[in-house]
Amino acid sequence: MAKEDNIRGVEKIEIGLPGDGVVGASLTEFKAVVLNSLSLTGSEANEETIKTEQDDSYLSINTDSTPATSTFKLYEVTGASAVMLMGGSWDAGSKTWSAPKTAPNKYLSVVITDIAGNKITFPYAKVSAKFEGNITKGELLSVDITITANTPISSTDVEGAPYEVAFAA
Q: Within a 10 A sphere around the Cβ of 111, how many other Cβ atoms?
């Protein structure tokens, strides 16, 4: 990997409804990402060790895997965007977001772009979001988001990658 291939800094995060097994065509752009809040954990194989009477570590095999996840925090989330991320409803007239009774399952496309134009893309991700933070004169309330990669499947049963990392040219 050359130095220019390093992924560093967040330029923007785009989130919206997924397309047919691909990233959605209309994504909402978020540029106010809380400093040092974004982390990415790639998928990881879970292992099981098969033992024999003579050998406690005879053979290790992959049993399943834990999907890739990313967490980050956003400022400047509008009422309409809060509905997209957390459910509930938005009354533009009274400028009031009302929380849902129970957190809904939200599946959205997420594209993270770094300052060099490299992109980490989740075409179909489970999104869990919530308001979080201290409300003081020195801090701001943010929306804390966790995304979990899911395998996108098109209407013709074509499976895509759960996430991709595309390096800028």
A: 20
Give the position of tokens 């997209």: 84
Q: Distance between CA atoms of 74 and 148, rounded to whole angstroms?
A: 17
CA atoms within 13 A on the CB side of 36: 0
Q: Strands 106-114 and 119-132: what pairing?
A: antiparallel
Q: Give the pTM.
A: 0.87
Complete DSSP assignment for the chain: --GGG---SEEEEEEE---SSS--S--EEE--BPTT--EEE--EEEEEEE--SS-TTSEEEEEEEEPPEEEEEES---HHHHHHHH-SEEETTTTEEE--SSPPPEEEEEEEEETTS-EEEEEEEEEEEEEES--BTTB--EEEEEEEE---B-TT--B--S-EEE---
For the segment 18-52, what is each residue's pLDDT rounded down to a tens digit? 999 999 999 999 999 999 999 999 888 888 888 88
Please check whether residue 120 is in contact with residue 163, taking contact to mean a CB–CB distance below 8 angstroms.
yes
